[in-house]
Amino acid sequence: MKINVLEKLRSRKATIGIIGMGYVGLPLALAFANSNTKVIGFDIEETKTQFINDGVSYFNHISSGSIKSVVEGGKFYATTDFSEISIVDAIILCLPTPLNQYREPDLSYIIRTMDNILPYLRKGQVLSLESTTYPGTTEEEISTRIRQKGLEVGEDFFVVYSPEREDPGNPDFTTSRIPKVVGGTTQNCLDVGVALYEGIINKVIPLSSTKAAELTKLLENIYRSVNIGLVNEMKMIADKMDIDIWEVIDAAATKPFGFTAFYPGPGLGGHCIPIDPFYLTWKAKEYGVNTRFIELSGEVNTFMPHWVVQKVSDSLNEHEKSMKNSNILILGLAYKKNIDDVRESPSVEIMELLQEKGAKVSYSDPYVANFPKMRKYYFDLKSQPITSDLLAKMDCVVITTDHDLIDYEFILEHSKLIVDTRGVYRNVESEIVIRA
Q1: Which end of the chain, N or C, is less surrounded by CB atoms within 10 Å?
Q2: Domain holding 340: CATH number?
Q3: How many domains does the chain fold into?
Q4: Structural contact between residues 158 and 192, judged by C-beta atoms closer than 8 angstroms
Q5: Residue 45: is it exposed, middle or buried by C-beta count within 10 angstroms (0-12/13-18/19+)?
Q6: pLDDT tens-digit profile of 12-25?
Q7: Is the pTM of this model over 0.90?
């Protein structure tokens, strides 16, 4: 069975089924389709599948043309019909893994999807989980269910874990150019998993187990979380000492060894870094381990929106203006520059905190025209075009996302007060610019 599967994958005769047409699943589908492999995209949202089949992109960083070309070429289509899982040779799960209200892992998307596709699984398929999760998930939630169906993992069905490493909006690192980590439930599973990805990824790194691959992904994101937490704490110390943290970081970065520059901000955003560390802290308790570094960095990063709001309040006071009834413009809703992704964006929490203190909040983001549906937050707002009239009405502009499309010189010229959380004006000396 393994030989037949390997031959199909390597000869591009396999059909790939990707479940979840989001920020991870859609680029992956396009990578396979562009390699002359047939792809079926699965999603529960009919609007997404219809957009794909019409050749229309719903992400700013993915062109409609890139979708249309492979759809019209017969290499890619999308569906909400999960019974078509039975006709694919490889199944890749690109599903959300959020936290619940108690900061515990929520695997409901994975579990629900597995239960939905289980009747359609068959011998000769490979299933890869790409969602970030705690070590043991692939074995406990995927392989166990497959065995219960009567399939023998490693002999007639193959299971791997290969964490996504997408960086939306980064033109230097597309799906194919980012090395891919793969861990298999068995050696046979690993061999099949490597074959699945090596046709579209420049470099595939095999690991000894799915657990090792799961922990690798967590380490990558925890490394960033801890270092961002450190530099955010340094920023608060530097602020109290009246030292420019951006100058300090730039100076430290001149050291050619032993230092990697991380930069402060208004808090953590995106689906990975604000969430993934807590997957490991939760699992570590099962082994009696107290993850102090991880939890401390989480506390610092979670506090940053509150720090920003306090800086706004203090800055308004310095300008003889109270927070209540002040008009405040949030500049940038996305969690990072040049994309439209607002998942876990600190900008949104800052908006809510400001509103709770009586401020009148609006936002401007060239990538987010309307405030999107979110689980925790909702504002009936649309992005405001940056004009001199708008800025004249604002008591304070808070830069939370440093999009390249924004004309910062214009904003500096027409604003009364700017709180800069991204170092946009790090080299500008102005009484109206407050670094936060």
Answers
A1: N
A2: 3.40.50.720
A3: 2
A4: yes
A5: middle
A6: 999 999 999 999 99
A7: yes
